[in-house]
Structures are given as structure tokens and as C-alpha cells.
Amino acid sequence: MLRTSILLLTKNDVEGVCACLQAVFSQKNAGPFEVVVIDSGSTDGTLDAVRQFPVRLEQIPPESFHHARTRNLAARHAKGEFLVFLSQDAVPASTNWLHAMLSNFADPSVAAVYGRQLPKRGSSMERQDALNTLYGEHRIVKDPASQNGRGYLFYHFSDVNAALRRSVWQSAPFPENLKVFEDLGIAKLILDAGWKIAYEPAAAVFHSHRHSTVGLFKRYFDIGYTLKQLNIWDAPGTRKSMVRELSRLFARKIVRLKNNRQMESLHEGIRQEIVKSAGIFLGLNQACLPLFLKRHLSAFQVFD
Question: Fewer CB near the last or first residue (10 Å), C or N of the chain?
């Protein structure tokens, strides 16, 4: 069996896809690997860009795209023992990215690995702080036997930049009942089954989006809803750790107010932290809201 399959979902991001694939095919010390691309209806030249690289391209209609289902489809097309998932706009930060990711599987109890996400140049203060909180400098192995005192971060996992053992994915695929945050769903399945998940900071990519304040509110509304849906919000330490981390984020921004050159971005960052907190709170308590309002507040149309 081929050792590694790199799985890339694409649609209308020719610049991001080119940068991503160039970095992927520049990897060293990673052994042989294949790249499988699943495109869901690109019309901007992305397909032409993809065909410049030695990849296997599969195409699906745009209306059939689904975060969990399409990732499971990509995995079924793969031949590798390890399935590496990478977003089209996530660019490996070094030629050692893949080797660092796969080295964690030397421990047979590790089922999945996710790597660091570094903010791209020009990213917002909110994204810089959020990524620095979620993706630190030190390697972590999440062990369900102890939960490592990680609080709400225990189940955190991102398939923007991650790898799974194929054998584990076969027994616990991405949960297709989730319209979004399928990575959170599969992480819970893996950890609850007794497997370990490793965080590897050396497997870093550049990846960040600039969200509007309204967009952040809606995104975090869906996060709150998903935390409740997966029974993560009620897990030991989740609530206290999340409140503690939000307090730290506020404190960092207040300290930065001393720098007048950052005043405008700091005010925006503080507003966005407040909005994110409100979004999570409403998402956690969405059962009290009428359906028409929940549909309006959701970023990913999670309510039918």
C-alpha cells in the first residue's frame, strides 16, 4: 500500500491552489506520496492550474459538496496508509511539513495529527490572536486517559492541515450528520474511542481568513451550536477554560491599547471578541430561539 495520500478539496482559488501544490511537491524526506484533488465546480482557471501538477483529479457537481461527505469521498479515492487533508489555501511553511506530520505515527496509539496554522501577512488582529491561542509552539499529545487538562481545547482538531490513519478513518469516518465542523466531530469520535491525537507545530502551514464582524458572529453561533450538539460543552473543564481564554484575549488587547498606531485595529479586535462571545452564547442556547431567527444567524445553514 502507498504510504501517504494528500487530499485537497478545491473550488475557485487558482492562486491559493498553485501556492499550495508548489509547496506540497517541494517536500523532502517524506517518501513517495500521491495527491488527490476533488474539485466541486471551479470556473476560474483552478482546474487548469491543478492539471499542471502530477495529481489525480476528480470532479463533482458544486451542489453535491458537503464538508464531511466530500472528505469521505476523497478518502475513498485515496490509496495511502495515511490520509493527509489540506485546505486549498493552506500553504506548507517548510519543506519538512509532511515529514513532521507523519513522524507522529511512529506511536501506534496516535490516530490523527494536526499541524500549526500561521496567520498570513495582513491578517486581522482577531485572527492572529485566535491562531496563536489554538496553535502554539509546543507539541501536544491528547490522551483520552487523562484529557491533559486541556479543557475546551481537548477536542480541538482542524482538517485544514491534518492527517489520519486510514484504518482509523475506516472505522470512524467524518460524521456526515454534521454540515460543518466535521473535524470537531471526527476528533470526538477518535478520542472517545480511546485513540490519541497529536498536535505537531513543526507541520506548519500559512492559513488565515479575514472575517467581518457579522461573519464572526455567525461562525461562532454555529460553533456554540456544534459544541452543544456534540456534548462537548458539558465535558469536564470546557466552560471554565473557555471563559478563562476569552478573558486572556480581552486582556491582551487592552494592554495593546498603549500603542496608538494600533488603536483602530484594537477597537475592531475588542468588538470582535465581544461578538464572538455573544455568538457562542446564543448558539449554545439556540433551542430557545425561533427557527427563522436561527436560520438567519447561522453562517453555514445548519438548520433545515
Answer: C
